[in-house]
Design goal:
Blueprint: E1 2-6, H1 11-22, E2 26-31, E3 47-49, H2 55-64, E4 67-72, H3 79-84, H4 86-106, E5 111-117, H5 140-159, E6 162-168, E7 170-172, H6 190-198, E8 205-208, E9 220-221, E10 223-225, H7 226-243, E11 247-251, E12 257-258, H8 259-270, E13 276-279, E14 288-289, H9 294-300, H10 309-322
Helix pairs in contact: 1-7, 2-4, 4-5, 6-8, 6-10, 8-10
The structure holds uridine-5'-diphosphate-4-deoxy-4-fluoro-alpha-D-galactose.
Length: about 325
Amino acid sequence: MAILVTGGAGYIGSHTVLYLLEKGEEVIVFDNLQKGHRKAVMKDVPFYEGDLHDSSLLDTVFSKHNIEAAIHFAANSLVGESVKDPISYYRNNVSGSLNLVDRMVKNGVKKIVFSSTAAVYGEPENVPIQESDRTQPTNPYGETKLAIERLLHWADQAYGLKSVALRYFNAAGADPKGRIGEDHTPESHLIPIILEAALGKRPHVSVFGEDYATEDGTCVRDYIHVMDLADAHYRALEKLKSTNESSVYNLGNGKGFSVKQVIGTCRSVTGRTIEAVASPRRAGDPAILIASSQKARDELGWIPKYPNLNQIVEHAWNWHLNHPDGYADGGSDDGLK
Ligand code: UFG
């Protein structure tokens, strides 16, 4: 039986595909390559380039392959962009997911692991955040992810579609073996931006706000290694298969690092000079986001293998150093060998 991975050519999706293949799973990738990279997926993995709104292509995939479950990553995921263009976020994320769920139900595929986000909480009421805490997104991106979680809830009631929603905190790092990594255009995430500055591709790193109510005044985030996220997807799928019960989990290390601390770690890992420039706050940034992942630990047996920020940055740096232009560097166009 195969697993359909939507958005399997994206950053977290491609690492999960690699991880699943290493576990001996049969994987089918579906991606519109708007943000993803064909090269991030092994050549011999069945790959469908298409949009989630394309019902007939989805039906073809479901009828050609013996699919038992989907892992659904395909989505737009930039907070700032979502504020500027909510319609495209609702269209791509909510309406696209609605169509995927519709075609899954029609094709009798009743298990889905969903890529959700800490952005569903908005400004947190507690630190660390628990799954039962209030969900009140402060931007359209978080709203669309929450809307999909709610759709999955009701699809379970109505059609018996079982789901696990995984709410990631700050995904970072790269494949420890250096085969794939993070390559966004434009890049907006802190760690790759700092590493681009280390490579001289940017003159400096802007520190968005130094007057938050945190120890050094900069925002605190919970960075989690992308391969630990991949492992959590695998475990979520195993749990779905064995219990056939829907659930929601936070995924983070439970430890926060400020922007200044992350820059310090990047300086020590790279040994390069990285200039940091104080800049105004970025709209919509909560001061502190730290996960309680106790539930994932207890119920999925999930124990992050790379909780150390130094190691997360080392793996990201290894990728950036060897691929300063990301997937645009050399190699064939048609997938990882
Ligand atoms: N930051 C800077 N300078 C930069 C980039 C980021 O100071 O050039 C700061 C941000 O203000 C924030 C921290 O670094 O305080 C982390 O920013 P990221 O953009 O890397 O990540 P976010 O915490 O904003 O967003 C992440 C995910 C989102 C998700 C969100 C959940 O990327 O998809 O966590 O809150 F929605």
